[in-house]
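pinned: reference chain
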Amino acid sequence: METVYTIDSLNQMIEQLEIRQDAEWCAIKDEIDEIKDNLKPLNLIRNTVEEINETVGFKSNLAQSAISIGIGYLAKRFVVGKSDSTFKNIFGSLLQLVVTNLVSKPHEPSKEEP
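pinned: its structure tokens
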């Protein structure tokens, strides 16, 4: 930092530092919002599916659909398990359908207005 000899130049430097601090806080808040969005369970699943597709090299919609169906099936088995109850089986099938549809949709980051 340079040496300040007048009150006007000191006030000017203080103002510049306050503006810089505000800009840095806004950048930190934006980064936190992005991290929170990436840590949502649905986004974690989508990112995992995308990474699997890139790693293995799946390019077709058929392979991506198969992965989505598999994740839906795992969600059903995880929540419902093996059950003889008709209600639980119906609930599990609906859950599987919802999870499969959510995972198979293309990822679009949400743009919330402040």
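why pinned: The mean pLDDT is 77. Residues 72 and 98 are 8 Å apart (CA to CA).
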